[in-house]
Amino acid sequence: MTKAPVVAPSDELLEEYKGYGKDVRILTYKMLLEKFNEKYDHLTVKQKEVLREVITSVDNTDKLKEYYNTRIVEVHELLQKKTIELKDEVLKIKITEVLKYVKPLEKTEKVTNDAIINLLQYYELVNEL
Predict the structure, then answer these.
(1) Per-residue DSSP letters for 15-65?
(2) Per residue in 21-74, pLDDT tens?
(3) Which of 47, 48, 89, 107 stands 20 to 30 A from 55 (CA)?
(4) Which residues contact 44 (CB under 8 A, 6 or more apart)?
């Protein structure tokens, strides 16, 4: 209250983008979307769902946490099933160790970038098994 209000610096690129016409903005959006899809084309369907949810829930952290916890439980169950099916004992031990880290977030925890990356990697592991 005693300090002067902090003025956030304006993003020049965003201001420039706002000045473009509707056609240019649509074209820019399409190009951005195509580049994104090219870069992440190798992801599995589940990984794409996770990214889609992260992008759409950027302003709703409770919804994102609920989604994350649901997916983590799903991954845990998938990994447990895969572990039972495995013949290789060494791989079973390694997956069992990974399962110790696959757990939902607590009520006070926030969904971090690291948590999302871990979830994407867990899905990759499930896909490889």
Answers:
(1) HHHHHS-HHHHHHHHHHHHHHHHHHTTTS-HHHHHHHHHHHHTTT-HHHHH
(2) 778 778 877 888 888 778 878 888 888 888 888 888 777 778 888 888 999 999
(3) 107
(4) 123, 124, 127
Query: Is the per-residue pLDDT at 14 higher than 70?
Result: no
Give which of 121, 103, 127, 119 is closest to 54, Cα–Cα.
Answer: 119
Q: CA-CA distance, 27 to 23, in Å (whole number)?
A: 6
User: So what's the pLDDT on residue 73?
Assistant: 92
Q: Is the dihedral of CA 120, 115, 77, 121 positive or negative?
A: positive
Q: How far apart are CA 79 and CA 69, in angstroms?
A: 15
